[in-house]
C-alpha cells in the first residue's frame, strides 16, 4: 500500500538540516551561486593543464551554433584535419549544411519506411510510440554520416554555406516532425485499408516531395557540381572546375570510410566484450551503411585511440558531455564538482549502472586531438569541441582520464590498429538491440 509523506517526516528532515551549523553556509553558497559554482573543485581546474605530450595539428575550432549537429561537425572535422594538412590549407571547413540537408531528407524516408514496416503494430504500443516520439532530429552517430557521405559526398563550406535555419534548427525540426507525424498517420491508414505496397510507395514519394521543398526553402538546394578554388598557405592559387561532391570527397579527403570501426565501451551484463551490436530502427539511409559496434573494455578502447593519435590522426568520439563538465574553462573531470560533500549524500553509480538506470548515455560527439602520456599511461586528453572559440581554450577542452573512463562510450578507429583478435570479433554478425537501448542514443548536444 502506498504511503504518503507526513508532516512529522518533513519536520524531521528539516530538523536534520538545522542541526548542522555549516549547512547554512552551504545552503547560502548554493542558493546565491548555483550548485556547480558552489561545489567546484579549484584543484581540478588547476590540474587540467591544456598541454599534451601527443597532439594532432587541428587548427581553429568550428561552431555548430544553435543546432544538434555535433556528430556531424566532429566527423567533418576529422576529415578537414587530413585535407588541410595534405593541401596546405588553414581554417578550412567542409559544409555542415550540405550533410544536414541530406541527413534530414534521408531520415524522413527512413522514418516513413519504419512506419510502413510497423503498420500492423498498435499505435499505443512501445515500438510505434517510440518511432512517433521523434521522427527525425539533428542527432546521429558515425555510421549514419558514413551512409550520407557514401551516397552524396561532401562539399566545401563555400559551396553550400550556413543559412539562418541550419544554424538554428529548432523551428525546422518542429515543422518537419509535424509533417512526418501527419504523414505517418496517412501511411498507417492506407495500410489498414489494404492498399498495395506500390500505392503506398506512390503516396510516400509525394510526401518526400513536400519534405524536399521544406528543406530546400530552409537550407538551400545542395549543389550537384561546383568549382573548387582556393589559395594555399604558400599563396599558390588552385582551381578545380565542375567537380561533384562524390569526386571532391574521393580526391580531396581521400579517406576509405570502410576502414573505420566504431568501438564502444558498454560494460553492462547484456553486452559481453568482443561482440558486435546493432540497434533496431536506427539509421539514416535506407539500404545504407549498417550501424555496427564492437564492444571492448575501456583500456582497449583507450589504447586504440592513443595509437591513432600517435600516428597524427584525430579520433571521433561520443560521450555524455553533461556530466561533470564546465564549458567556461573547458574541463571534463569527475573531480570537478564535489556534490557528495555539499549535499551529504551518495550519488555514485558504476558506468554499467548509469547505463542500465537511464542516467547516462551518448549525448555529444567531439574529436580527440591529443593525449598526455606519463610513463606510457594517459592522464588527460585534448578535445576539439564544436561550440566556437568562446569556451575552453579557444574552443578546446581538457578531459581527465577518469572522466574518459566513466563517460566516453564510443570512438571511431581505423581497423589497422585492431589486433587480429579484434578484427575477427568485428567480423561477427551483430546482436540486435532494442530501439530504446542506450547504445542507440544520438549525439545532439548544442
Describe this structure in words.
- With 446 residues, the protein is an alpha+beta fold.
- The protein has 16 helices and 14 strands.
- The strands form two sheets. Strands 1, 4, 5, 6, 7, 8, 9, 10, 11, 12, 13 and 14 form a twelve-stranded mixed β-sheet that branches.
Helix/strand order, N-terminal first: HHHHEHHHHHHEEHEEEHEEEHHEEEHEHE
Work out the helicity level.
40-55%
Structural class: alpha+beta
Mean pLDDT: 97
Number of strands: 14
Low-confidence stretches: none
Gyration radius over CA:
24 Å
Strand content: 15-25%
* Amino-to-carboxy terminus distance: 44 Å
In one word, what is the shape? globular
Q: Give a short account of the largest sheet.
A: 12 strands, mixed
| Count of individual helical segments | 16
Furnish the topology, listing elements before pairings:
Blueprint: H1 7-18, H2 22-33, H3 35-39, H4 42-47, E1 54-55, H5 70-87, H6 96-117, H7 126-133, H8 142-152, H9 170-192, H10 197-219, E2 226-231, E3 237-243, H11 245-253, E4 260-264, E5 275-279, E6 293-295, H12 298-310, E7 315-319, E8 325-326, E9 331-332, H13 339-343, H14 351-356, E10 364-374, E11 377-384, E12 396-400, H15 401-407, E13 408-414, H16 420-426, E14 431-433
Parallel strand pairs: 4-6, 5-14, 9-12
Antiparallel strand pairs: 1-10, 2-3, 4-13, 5-6, 7-10, 7-13, 8-9, 10-11, 11-12
Helix pairs in contact: 6-8, 6-9, 6-10, 9-10
Amino acid at each position: 500500500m502506498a504511503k504518503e509523506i507526513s508532516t512529522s517526516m518533513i519536520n524531521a528532515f528539516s530538523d536534520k538540516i538545522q542541526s548542522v551549523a555549516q549547512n547554512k553556509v552551504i545552503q547560502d553558497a548554493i542558493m546565491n551561486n548555483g550548485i556547480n559554482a558552489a561545489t567546484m573543485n579549484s584543484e581540478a581546474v588547476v590540474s587540467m593543464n591544456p598541454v599534451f605530450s601527443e597532439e594532432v595539428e587541428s587548427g581553429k575550432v568550428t561552431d555548430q551554433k544553435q543546432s544538434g549537429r555535433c556528430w556531424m561537425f566532429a566527423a567533418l572535422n576529422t576529415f578537414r584535419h587530413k585535407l588541410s594538412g595534405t593541401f596546405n590549407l588553414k581554417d578550412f571547413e567542409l559544409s555542415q549544411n550540405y550533410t544536414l540537408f541530406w541527413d534530414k531528407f534521408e531520415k524522413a524516408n527512413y522514418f516513413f519506411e519504419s512506419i510502413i514496416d510497423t503498420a500492423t503494430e498498435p499505435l499505443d504500443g512501445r515500438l510505434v510510440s517510440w518511432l512517433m516520439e521523434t521522427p527525425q532530429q539533428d542527432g546521429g552517430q558515425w555510421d549514419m554520416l558514413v551512409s550520407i557521405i557514401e551516397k552524396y559526398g561532401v562539399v566545401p563550406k563555400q559551396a553550400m554555406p550556413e543559412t539562418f535555419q541550419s544554424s538554428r534548427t529548432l523551428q525546422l525540426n518542429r515543422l518537419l516532425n509535424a509533417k512526418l507525424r501527419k504523414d505517418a498517420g496517412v501511411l498507417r491508414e492506407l495500410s489498414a485499408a489494404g492498399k498495395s505496397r506500390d500505392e503506398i510507395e506512390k503516396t510516400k514519394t509525394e510526401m518526400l516531395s513536400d519534405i524536399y521543398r521544406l528543406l530546400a526553402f530552409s537550407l538551400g538546394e545542395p549543389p550537384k557540381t561546383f568549382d573548387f578554388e582556393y589559395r594555399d598557405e604558400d599563396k599558390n592559387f588552385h582551381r578545380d572546375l565542375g567537380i561533384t561532391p562524390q569526386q571532391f570527397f574521393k580526391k580531396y579527403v581521400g579517406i576509405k570510410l570502410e576502414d573505420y570501426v566504431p568501438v564502444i565501451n558498454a560494460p553492462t551484463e547484456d553486452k559481453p566484450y568482443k561482440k558486435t551490436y546493432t540497434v533496431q530502427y536506427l539509421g539514416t539511409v535506407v539500404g545504407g551503411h549498417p550501424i555496427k559496434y564492437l564492444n571492448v573494455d575501456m583500456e582497449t578502447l583507450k589504447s586504440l585511440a592513443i595509437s591513432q593519435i600517435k600516428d597524427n590522426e584525430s579520433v571521433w568520439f561520443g560521450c555524455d558531455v553533461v556530466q561533470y563538465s564546465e564549458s567556461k574553462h573547458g574541463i571534463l573531470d569527475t573531480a570537478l564538482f564535489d556534490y557528495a560533500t555539499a549535499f551529504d549524500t551518495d550519488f555514485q553509480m558504476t558506468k554499467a549502472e548509469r547505463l542500465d538506470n537511464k542516467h547516462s548515455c551518448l549525448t555529444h560527439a567531439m574529436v580527440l586531438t591529443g593525449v598526455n602520456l606519463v610513463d606510457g599511461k594517459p592522464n588527460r586528453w585534448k578535445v576539439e569541441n564544436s561550440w566556437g572559440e568562446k569556451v575552453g581554450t579557444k574552443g578546446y577542452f581538457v578531459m581527465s582520464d577518469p572522466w574518459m573512463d566513466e563517460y566516453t562510450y564510443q570512438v571511431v578507429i581505423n581497423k589497422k590498429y585492431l589486433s587480429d583478435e579484434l578484427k575477427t570479433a568485428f567480423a561477427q554478425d551483430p546482436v540486435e538491440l532494442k530501439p530504446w537501448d542506450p547504445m542507440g542514443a544520438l549525439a545532439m548536444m548544442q
